Amino acid sequence: xxxxxxxxxxxxxxxxxxxxxxxxxxxxxxxxxxxxxxxxxxxxxxxxxxxxxxxxxxxxxxxxxxxxxxxxxxxxxxxxxxxxxxxxxxxxxxxx
Length: 96
Fold this sequence. Notes:
Layout: E1 17-21, H1 26-42, E2 46-50, H2 55-61, E3 67-70, E4 73-77, H3 82-88
Parallel strand pairs: 1-2
Antiparallel strand pairs: 1-3, 3-4
Protein name: Redoxin
InterPro entries: Glutaredoxin-like, Glutaredoxin-like_YDR286C, Thioredoxin-like_sf
Pfam families: Glrx-like
């Protein structure tokens, strides 16, 4: 399965992180690595959405990708700060 189709299930009461990007985007690749690491440390599910297959996401975010949402709310765009994402997920800046 393509990483752009990755989807994880959300249990009630837990956070979910969404990475919005597109194939061939080096900033998206960088963001994916940070999101994957922080979410693994925090035990938080994450999903990835591709703006090239979703017209609504493309209209909303094409100038900002990669975009990270936490629980459906925009958290950041272009560059993901691991410490800031950890804090948004309830963790310490240096780790879980």
